[in-house]
Design brief:
By secondary structure, this protein is α+β, with helices and mostly antiparallel strands. The chain has a single domain, classed as GMP Synthetase, Chain A, domain 3. It contains three helices and three strands. It has a three-stranded mixed sheet with strand order 1-2-3. Helix 1 packs across helix 3.
């Protein structure tokens, strides 16, 4: 369980570092879960929640940044 907590803390730190970019556009991201397989579940909120570009933001922004900083992250999925 220690590894899960460490990974989750790493993910939170990276999300905090990019949160400002999302908030500048009226949105935000909330960490929901990190699976043992390296799948990060997030909830896009505010303007990001209903934005037609949210999938692009998720893949090209959030997922790419997480993978660059944390090799254990395999993918990022949005949940409602």
């Amino acid at each position: 369980m220690g590894d899960d907590t460490v990974l989750k803390d790493k993910v939170k730190t990276v999300l905090d570092s990019i949160r400002g970019y999302l908030q500048a556009d009226g949105g935000d991201v909330e960490l929901v879960d990190v699976s043992d397989e390296g799948v990060v579940s997030v909830r896009l909120t505010g303007a990001c929640g209903g934005c037609p570009m949210s999938q692009l933001t998720l893949q090209m922004g959030i997922e790419r940044t997480l993978k660059e900083h944390i090799p254990e992250v395999k993918s990022v999925v949005a949940v409602n």
